[in-house]
Amino acid sequence: MDRPAGGGDAIPGTSDPVTRLCLDVFAEAASTPPPGALARLLSAARSARPPASAAGFAAPFAARVAAMDALLASAMPADWGQKIVEGWTLQELVAHLAATDGLVAHAIGVPLAGPPLAADEVLSRTADMIAYTGGRTPEETRAEWRAQAEAICARAAAMEPGTPIAPGGTRFPVSDHLLARMLETWIHTKDAAAVIGLPLPLPLAAHVHPTADFCARLIPWTMLLSGVDGGERSVRLTLTGPGGGAWHVPLSVAQVAAPDDGAPSDAQITCDVVEFCFLLGGRGTPEAFAARLEGDEGLAREVLRCAPALSGP
Amino acid sequence: MEAPGTDDRLLHQRVVGGDESALGEVHHRHYPLVLGLALRVTRDRVVAEDIVQEVFVTFWERPLAFDPDRGSLRSWLATIAHRRAVDHVRTEHRHRVSALGPRLADPEPSPLEDWVLAADEAARVREAVSRLPGGLREPIELAYYRGRTYRQTAEDLGLPEGTVKSRIRLGLRRLADELAEEEV
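Above: the input entities. Below: the structure tokens describing the complete assembly.
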């Protein structure tokens, strides 16, 4: 490392060597926090922004909820009225998240944010929640969304991950529904961060990985929904970057994608793990998608073309 | 001194994701720096401890205000701490101005934009450096006053790089003790 030894670090207004020296002196000082300082800090921190409490399979969703909440904590009053996506303002986007989370809440017996559920369906529930938030402040909308999400995590964490639930009529394990919520919350947080102009760090690799695994398992369904018959063919999907991995993906819904074990495949797709999850989530276009395709390239392109089929608003 | 940026990045990802233990780690790692800065500006331990808490709560509540692409967490916390401490002193100053009348109050602290140590502070630090034994003083003078890297400093002094690093560290610690004693 060849930067200046005397803390070559850019602190505004501290180009002065003696000031830099002084900062390093502070950092070297043998002062440790007084007893109770950390407990006092954590208690103040908790009331400023609640921590993500869920462990296990609910953790990736809980962390994305905390990240969205962090973004909302930085939102200025004018940001709440900004159009983010689908013609929704930031406040309406939070209402949409609360609406979709609400279907999961309903399916596992968690009290709903907002008005009673009229129909177990995303679009109508979103419309109801947006109408409801018309009479609420942004902070109220934020607090209700967050409280419902926390309650979902707490309730789900006490369930067996494989327990099937069917929010909105879509039946699969509760753990996968939480990964779907993770992906949607992540994508909408990224949408909002882009409009407001805030940098959003990636989720932890340990949270990206199960989400990518979920997306890999969705591939045959995206093809089925697009009217493409994958037949007995399969692809090897290699996702690069933190949280990535390699999967053997049979293209028939009768089989399930699994970590790659070297089994022969008809086509091979290599791409960035985050971009792949976002493609499934309806961000980016299959035509412009950066991926290395090998083997049956036509098949590989077909897989990418179908990938966004399950993404909703 | 500073660990490379990957550490900051991971801690930041964890804090954004609501992981309290990451806040604990940030606190543990940067408490001395933040407290030292707050003390130096406010000269009041109780007030400084409050500012320390405020700085870490700010980071926890609005972690997206920190961008690891634009600098280290250490710099960012130092900047916030300094701003808060200066704000505090300014508020106090205004109270004193209204209580005592303008002439009896101290001059205002300099604003953040041209933040360097006040001249008397800088003189105290230089003075303390000059009292260090030569073996500790020389590497600090080269590294800080002359902007030399560890390797260059080691070459200048004809010492192994590891020795230079540990002497600088020892020197910083000695300075910390000296300056703390003067404070009391």
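Note for the figure: The first helix of chain A runs from residue 17 to 28.
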